[in-house]
């Protein structure tokens, strides 16, 4: 699997379009996919928000966020590295865990057949 580090706005638009049309994804997975894409670091091509951050941003429960991320990974919209992310301490002495690192997969050939990018001719 190739990691695209310098994605364009068009790459993100196409990926969001694929997620919107994919009948295998539920609304929660589409929403979390959008929030993950909005947090991608343009230098590294990755993002590392925790479940709590995504739950707060999306208005979904932590359990729903976890299920949505698993669905996005299973459907090949994102890959991940366990515990590779960064986390800042909220207060002195807090034990800091490591969040997962998420990597968008922009190549549609990595996904099941029938989910190809859609471009308007207009």
What does this structure look like?
The chain is mainly alpha-helical and 122 residues long. It has one domain (9-88, 98-108): Arc Repressor Mutant, subunit A. The protein has helices at 9-21, 27-38, 51-58, 62-74; strands spanning 78-81, 101-104. The longest helix is centred in the first third of the chain and has 13 residues, at 9-21. It is globular.
Question: SSE layout and pairings?
Answer:
Elements: H1 9-21, H2 27-38, H3 51-58, H4 62-74, E1 78-81, E2 101-104
Antiparallel strand pairs: 1-2
Helix pairs in contact: 1-2, 2-4, 3-4
Please give a quick description of this structure.
With 122 residues, the protein is mainly α.
CATH hierarchy class name: Mainly Alpha
Helical percentage: 25-40%
Largest sheet, in brief, is:
2 strands, antiparallel
Range of strand content: 5-15%
Number of strands: 2
Number of domains: 1
Q: What descriptors fit this protein?
A:
two-stranded antiparallel ribbon; 122 residues; Arc Repressor Mutant, subunit A; globular; disordered C terminus; 4 helices; disordered N terminus
């Amino acid at each position: 699997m190739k990691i695209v580090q310098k994605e364009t706005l068009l790459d993100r638009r196409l990926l969001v379009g694929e997620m919107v049309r994919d009948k295998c994804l539920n609304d929660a997975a589409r929403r979390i996919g959008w929030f993950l894409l909005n947090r991608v670091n343009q230098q590294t091509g990755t993002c590392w928000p925790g479940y709590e951050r995504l739950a707060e941003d999306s208005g979904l429960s932590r359990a729903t966020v976890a299920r949505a991320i698993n669905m996005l990974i299973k459907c090949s919209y994102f890959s991940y590295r366990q515990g590779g992310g960064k986390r800042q301490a909220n207060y002195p002495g807090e034990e800091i865990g490591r969040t997962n690192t998420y990597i968008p997969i922009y190549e549609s050939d990595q996904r099941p057949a029938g989910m190809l990018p859609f471009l308007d001719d207009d």
